[in-house]
Amino acid sequence: MMAPAAHELGINLQILAESPEVCAVQVVPHAPVGDYTDLDQLRAFAAGVDVLTFDHEHVPTQFLETLIDEGVNVQPRPAALVHAQEKLEMRKAVERLGLPNPRWAEVASVDDLVSFGDEIGWPVVLKTPRGGYDGKGVLIVKTAEDARGGEASTWFDQLGQREDFSTLLAEQKVPFTRELSALVARRDSGEVRPWPVAESIQVNSVCDEVIAPAPGLDPAVAQAAADAAVRLATELGVTGVMAAELFEVPGTEHGFLINELAMRPHNSGHWTQDGSHTSQFEQHLRAVLNWPLGETAVKDEVAIMKNFLGGANEDIFGKIPEAVEAEPAAKVHFYGKGVKPGRKIGHVNIGGSAAETESLRAAVTRAARIISDGHA
């Protein structure tokens, strides 16, 4: 999705593709297939580029540091990126900066987990420090008995077999009312621009819908959330787009707690493609190249994004005309991925007045269902 923005700005975008079937290969002329966990292949791909950036956080940090030592312009730097790769490092940074964290602990054993749960109250959330997304690597542990006899115990038993981490992250189960996303972009010069804080609606631990700005959000909480994202981006030295995923918790000091960070264009920011003066994809390119950043205000009063997943309909392309006929104001973005049940394969955007929010939500839902299920 960065390709159209790159083309419009005259940027020669190249990608290191994991396989010939990766959807970006369809739209990026120079897309050699390679392994991002192989230093020699990374080194060969990076030769001659002005800047090396990412669309996920899984490139080994030590390889990025080697490339920097060899003169490659890597953005964001691994010292910042590690806070999106490693949840324990993220928690420590949020605490160090005095920003709102849930209660948390680094745990190395079932006994550690039980002590934490007994201290703050059950249930608790157990997370793998690396590799989790869309609900993967996350386990709700309801009681001390579950910790000692359930899946949590298996997680600890397997720690000795892991090379990527040796402890786990335990967190309080936050009594949040909804999830929010504070999206921000920063460039090396220090210029930072946040987008309006959005509401992110999850279904089965997968982002389903995003509404920007978040309806009914206390302006003071919205400002505090945006300020927290700006401070994180600034203090951690982020370049490019960063999403701070938040829990709204009314009645607490700040009104929210920080959940996780992502340092790349993020699903919660896809609404910006049609709903903001500058999309997150264009902004990321500007930021990593240290170009001036674009305006981030919402074009209309509200912008809505609805994901569509793989469902009953396998002829996605055949249903897009029906979807746009049913909802002419909707903008469909299909990723060109193979259709698999539950897999994110595209999204629909729409914008309008705040008074129309519910009818706009119904419109993008209708268009998304036509595409994924074959009928409204």
Describe this structure in words.
This protein is of the alpha+beta class and 376 residues long. It folds into 3 domains: 82 residues, Rossmann fold (3-Layer(aba) Sandwich); 70 residues, Dna Ligase, domain 1; 196 residues, ATP-grasp fold, B domain (D-amino Acid Aminotransferase, Chain A, domain 1, 2-Layer Sandwich), CATH 3.30.470. Helix content is 33%, strand content 21%. It is built from 13 helices and 13 strands. Strands 5, 6, 7, 8, 9, 10, 11, 12 and 13 form a 9-stranded antiparallel β-sheet that branches. Strand 9 and strand 10 form a beta hairpin. Helix 3 packs antiparallel against helix 4 and helix 4 packs across helix 5. The longest helix is centred in the middle third of the chain and has 18 residues. It is globular and about 55 Å long. It starts with a helix and ends with a helix.
